[in-house]
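U., I forgot to send this yesterday:
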Amino acid sequence: MKLFLAVMACLALAQAAQLPFQRPITVRDAQEVAAKSHSRIVNGFPAEAGQFPYQVFLRGFVASGGALMCGGSLISNEWVLTAAHCITGVQRFEIVMGTINTASPEVLGTSTSFIIHPQYNSNNLNNDIGLIRLDSPVTFSQNIQAVNLPSADRTGETFVDAIATVSGFGRTSNTGPVSPTKNWVNIRVISNAACQSVYGSAVVIASTVCGTGADAANQSTCQGDSGGPLTVQENGASLQIGVVSFVSSAGCTSGHPSGYVRTTHFRSWINEQTGI
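Result:
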């Protein structure tokens, strides 16, 4: 009997090893699929005026004449933090700031100066982080503020089990036009080991942070745009611990973890590029 159980256990392990990992895709791509199918972005909540004043909406114009839509966060009065895949191929940006509706910005900034992390890998989305420099510094107001970043000495902090908030702009109804309003949802941070069991160790590395819906399995970053901020509350202020990067190709509501770039691992690089 013991021998039989041992053999069955080995067979189970062998079968598990053959199971394919989920394929990660950028949240921007996942949202484009959702927009084309007119599907609802579920389980998010509408933001109030002045909520998430660091959140920006990015409209990136490419050589073909089209535009991509992403999120980002103000980390100073002249720098925006976002995902590298939001910058790839873009020639110039419009940056919508200080609003819960992209049609009525308090400030509409522009930029033709941006930086993609030199080790960004579009195949596995490692190091999916980038910076955009505003053509003109923005004046802070009640609705426009910079988010706090972790200090460089917190690289080893995992934030596992923390309740974090991801914000951005997304669809809010099954039918009709896209509603360009700001939304948010809470995410519970999970361990990298748990996330690797879904996506594999080539995708989930030390500089990746993952999370699942805090209140429902199908809560995900489809509530916002790629490049947007994942934050926790610390000393009464928002601290950005992640940048929205990927979801499962099975869909935003599949229950699989959403993936983010861990900002603690890029503080030195951010400082070198921006002085922040």
